[in-house]
Amino acid sequence: MRTHAFFASLFVFLGVAAGCSQSISGPPATPLGHWQPSKLASDPRAKFERLVPELDKLFADDQRASHVPGMGVGIVLGGEIVYAKGFGLRDVERKRPFEADTPFPIASVTKSFTAMAILRLRDEGKLDLDVPAERYYPPLGRIARATRDSPAITLRMLLSHSSGMPEDNPWGDVTEHFTEQDMAKLLDGAAMSRAPGVAYEYSNLAWGVIGRIVERVSGMPLRDAIRRMVFEPLGMTHTDWSPSAFAKGTVAVGYRGRDRNEDMTASREIAPPAELGVLDSAGSIHTTVRDLLRYVSFHVSAWPARDDAESGPLRRSSVREMQQGVRASSSNEFVRVLTLRSPMPMARLQDGHLKADAGAYGFGLFSHRTCEEDFYVEHAGGLPGYITLMGMLPQKGFGMVVFLNDERAGTRVISRTMNRLREAGLLAAPRVEPLPAMAAVPGAVDQLMTNWNDARARDLLEPTFFRYQSIDAFRERFARLTREHGTCRLEGEPRFVNRMRGRWQVACERGSITFAAGLGPGSKPRVQALEMREDFPPSAALRRAGEASVEMLGRWDDNGAAALFAKDAELARVKKAFTQLAAVHGKCSIERAVESDGATHATFALTCADAPMELTVAVDPTGHATEVTGRPPRSEGAPNCAE
């Protein structure tokens, strides 16, 4: 049940010993009602519908260009299933089309379903993630410890691939008809790759153990347990555990290259079916694009945290817990990767931009922080003949699934779809509702700027605030702001990053001021930190330098460059950088200044033919440029990978 990290979109199984359901102390079970996907608001829905022809073409072109026989694609937006289609053929020999309702083995994506069942049992108070897992599955206690000081393996370690069991994807993919007796025998004296709890290492065997724990604690066979605890509450009526559960000829046929030939244009053969036996909890689920989208929709519906009634198979808080990275992940110990001269890069240049990824494994899901998104959740799955990709921006209500019925295939349609939706304004940062005390801060600060009052300032700010600067110094700072900027007014809506911290901007007669504030702890919180950044209109020299730089981007001129830059500038290096920027962005013009101290540096937003850009210019006292830097526009809803 390979993770297929190489193909992931942004970088990418009856106890033999006596055992029965066992309760432990814990929170009471919460009855959860029937769950249904939410509905996307009318305006974003209309925006998305206008993109559908473009997306149809993107997916059809990708299927043809990648030479994969068939592909299934589905999208969730705003929690609603808005797109589900198939492209190409599910069965080449019989010319049967791939459809959104074509059953497909999702391999390791199964793991998150098993994790959901474990967390439901945990929430019901029936097990503990942090006690020795051999309490629930005794054969686990007979492994050979890697070191004398190795701790006992816990469920949390098993769920996060940090049990110390060795990576086993080639073995796990083809362990046909492996029984629990086989697994117990294998665990008896089994060698460990490392001590538990210290590092990530992908183990399908660990998930076989997790599946047996689900059986013992729930009192049901694993497949029945997950069917009742997950499939049925989500309305996944076209999901099961074996190809035999579906009508003959409807399941997608899986293909591979002959004799391991990975060239997609080379001749293909039908891959042999994989029967995983007791490793079913790691990779045996078969489902359709449309059914898996219901599961994805449930995951994104866990955001934001809120007061609404709970519904579905698991508490929203536990769904969010699944998605959080627990153990930093890496593919650098996979045998295939060890053939490389150096480890796989954590960052790379792509289309002239830096792409970086920080990943961690949660409970059956990978969590990533990237240059484009602060929180991306995914898992890929692979079995002989099949690849499944599932990716989510859960905080933004987006999710996507892709099925490919050739194990050699690769695709970037998830990242390309996200880019297009982002450009269309359909992946906006989630709105955070602040505490009333935080919501009142911008107005209170505005009152202090308009009419300072010591008592009002002391009421707004924590007493500890004035341990860092006296109230006299703070009063004078506000007076200076008024002298230098003139009359100011609140501009736009504040942006709150959580319930007790945020920022806002005021527009002034001369420039603008960006404020940021955070509340202190307590039942009646007041402001513990207040920071501000001042911006002034760019000077004439800064604007001239900006305009000249934009002109040089369009057409380099040695004489113009000599006039623009300071004498000690390395013009050959500057020319190379300008040429690279022009190749990526095309012809540009200045739209507006977005940041400036008014005298020495300014950042301009540029409108460009191919891709927007921000251009930062610094000048010396003579007005000559000392630095010119171009970068993609910064987004409030995404990390900034590089200056």
Automatic annotation (TrEMBL):
Q: Which UniProt keywords are present, listed alphabetically? A: Signal
Instruction: Enumerate the Pfam families for this protein.
Output: Beta-lactamase
**Signal sequence coordinates:** 1-18
Q: Where is the Beta-lactamase-related domain?
A: 55-417
Q: What domain of life is recorded for the organism?
A: Bacteria
- Which PANTHER family did the record assign? BETA-LACTAMASE-RELATED DOMAIN-CONTAINING PROTEIN, D-ALANYL-D-ALANINE-CARBOXYPEPTIDASE/ENDOPEPTIDASE AMPH
Designated name of the protein: Beta-lactamase family protein
